[in-house]
Amino acid sequence: MSRLFLYANLDATVGLRVDDPTLDALAGDLHSAALSSVADCPPDAEADLAWSDAKDDLVQISLRGEAWETPMAAADAFFQSENLLTRLFCSKLAGLLQLHAAAVADDAGRAWLICGPSRAGKTSLALSLMLEGWNWLTDELVLVDEAAPTRLKGFKRNFNLKEPSWPLFPETDQLPHRRESWSGHHQANIRFIDPEALKPDSFVPEADLAGILLPAYSEDGDSPVFEKTPGMAATQALLPEVTAPSASMVSVIAGWARDVPVLRVTYNNPREIPASLRESHPFD
What we know:
Layout: E1 2-8, E2 14-18, H1 24-31, E3 49-54, E4 58-63, E5 66-72, H2 74-92, E6 97-100, E7 102-105, E8 111-114, H3 122-130, E9 135-138, E10 141-144, E11 151-153, E12 159-162, E13 179-183, E14 188-193, H4 195-198, E15 206-217, E16 225-228, H5 231-238, H6 247-259, E17 262-267, H7 273-280
Parallel strand pairs: 8-15, 15-17
Antiparallel strand pairs: 1-2, 1-3, 3-4, 4-5, 6-10, 7-8, 7-9, 10-11, 11-15, 12-14, 13-14, 16-17
Helix pairs in contact: 5-6
């Protein structure tokens, strides 16, 4: 049996450790942005995830010592493990407020939250801005300390890029630890990529919130269109993405919607958004 251990703490430091060198590649594909050699676990520590061979060349996943579902093909085990990793990290970071969103940092080091439902284009927009020089905090989970509600904390995780967006980002075609796997939940192939391989030293652990982008893909759209979104509408757009709803998180989001610009970005090609931002200066 091969085992993987997670660590996470309330300053949003996250990482992985494996106890079998043959798992290094798998762990890298799963979460290379957070892969760490920090190895000081007690000898009797229970693994967070474990994989063992089952009959018919299938893989059995164990979650904290208990079998997870039934044995499955290696490709399915990979995607299930990726989902379980995020869930495990969320549980270990339960002391922080959590929002399903991406976040990037502009040239001035200010954080821009990118929030919307699945397929809205969070990852594509984050990648587009990164490739124009911005840095990244996360493409999946924004973390907030209730005591500092406008300070966003990053979450190191490999970006998940859905297949319809692959042709727009040829830079991701041959990255180290790139892995492609079918997601039944999304009904799409997902490309897992390490953003640090795409743009080294670009992770920002935390930054002050300067604004919020709400991407909305439009198949027939031309140039990106930016529309200011009032506070109530902004709050309603953000609330469905709260990982664990609470009065504290509602209060934080209401404050964001009141105090920083919130822009709905309707677009056809995410790669056109960075230039349009520069030309129109919609944040001023």
